[in-house]
Every structure is written in C-alpha cells, then in structure tokens.
Amino acid sequence: MLNRKQVRFCLDEMKKMFPDAECELNHRNPFELVIAVLLSAQCTDVLVNKVTADLFKKYQTPEDYLAVSLEELQQDIRRIGLYRNKAKNIQKLCQALIDQHHGEVPQTREALMKLAGVGRKTANVVVSVAFKVPAIAVDTHLERVSKRLGICRWKDSVLEVEETLMRKVPEEEWSETHHRMIFFGRYHCKARNPNCPECPLLEICREGKKRMKKLEVTPN
C-alpha cells in the first residue's frame, strides 16, 4: 500500500489535473442536492441533470413531491434507473423532512442516513457540498482509483476505503480530495479504458504498471 508521502504525491498531481473539481449534480439548495444524489445511484450525473432540469421546476418543496401520486412522480423520473423505488424513497424522505425536520434538510450525516434512500455516500456528499463539513463520499470512481493506486487494499469494503482515506488525507482536504478523485476516475482512470500511458501517477500505480506490462510488445 502507498505510504503517506506517495499519497501526498497522488493528491498533488490530481490537484494539477483537476484544480476546479466540484459536484457536477445541478442543484440550488440542500434539498435539491439530496434529491439529485438519491437519483444518481447507478446512474450518470449527466442523465440526472437532464431529468432534474424539469423536475426541479415542477417540485420545489417536500410538499410538492407529496402533492402528486406515486405514479406521476415515477413518470417524471422514468428515464432514471430504478425509478420506481427511487420515487417511493423520495416521497418517504419528503414526509420525514416535514414530520421530523420542519421541512428542512438535516445537517448531520447521522440524521441524513435515517432518511429513505440516503446511505452513507449520499449523506457524505450532502454534508460536504451543502454544509461544508469535511467528508469523503466513496462512490465507484473513488473506490476504483483508491484500489488501483494501492492507497487501499483490493478486499477493502467501501467503509474501509473511506476510513483509510480519512487517515491518510488531512481533514481539511477531505472534501476537495473526494471531488478530485472522482474526476480522476471519471475522466482519466476510467473503469474500462484507463489512460495509463499518459498518467502522471504511473510510476507508483500498481495496477497501471501491470496494465502497461501487458501492453509491452515481445520481440519476435
């Protein structure tokens, strides 16, 4: 596994590559962010933004989502994967916000995780982006990058990846590191076709070295 000096090198290089990395889900307030992140599970941010462009015009408060039938809400988000279950969770979440939080999005991870459809990753995104609380939300990109580089072990769970990064990255950099690692995984270290030949981290990347070795042409 990479030591702290090597992790520091990774963070610095990612900062050079993606200095302006930020949440790519369009939203105007914490409530819209919660809905957008909930919808983004197993779905691209690009598609979510297309759907929420109209969704957020029609629904602006928790009450708005509860004023329509479940079937109508499902139709409004039908382009999103798992839309039936997500529509149910949205209405349950909105009811809980009204009943337990005066219609406002709670600001702690613990309270957020009690809402329907909100897991640890979603809660971490919301506290980090909406409320500026240091957090590392581990999505598929961040998990893949952490394991390929050797910051974490291949067998580590998502929670173990998060805990390892929290130990190896200064707390004041958690949120920005989360965004930069996602950008790095989304646009450079892609799942199917990582850009190893042009990667500034190749020399310390265990997975990159293996991939490059396979690409070497053996002389006849």
Describe this structure in words.
- This protein has 220 residues and is mainly alpha-helical.
- The chain is 58% helix and 0% strand.
- The protein has twelve helices and no strands.
- Helix 2 (30-39) runs antiparallel to helix 8, helix 5 crosses helix 6 and helix 9 packs across helix 11.
Total of DSSP H or I helical runs spanning 4+ residues: 12
Provide the CATH top-level class of the largest domain.
Mainly Alpha
Ranges with pLDDT <50 over ≥5 residues? Answer: none
- Largest sheet, strands/sense/barrel: none
Strand-pairing-aware structural class: mainly alpha
Basic shape: elongated
The averaged pLDDT comes out at 95
* Strand segment count: 0
Give the second-level CATH assignment, the architecture of the largest domain.
Orthogonal Bundle
Name the helix and strand elements from N-terminus to C-terminus, one letter apiece.
HHHHHHHHHHHH
Beta-strand fraction estimate: under 5%
**Domain unit count:** 2
The CATH topology label of the largest domain is Endonuclease III, domain 1
Fraction in helix: 55-70%
Instruction: Spell out the CATH superfamily of the largest domain.
Output: Hypothetical protein, domain 2
Quote the distance from N terminus to C terminus.
Answer: 36 Å
Report the C-alpha radius of gyration, rounded: 19 Å
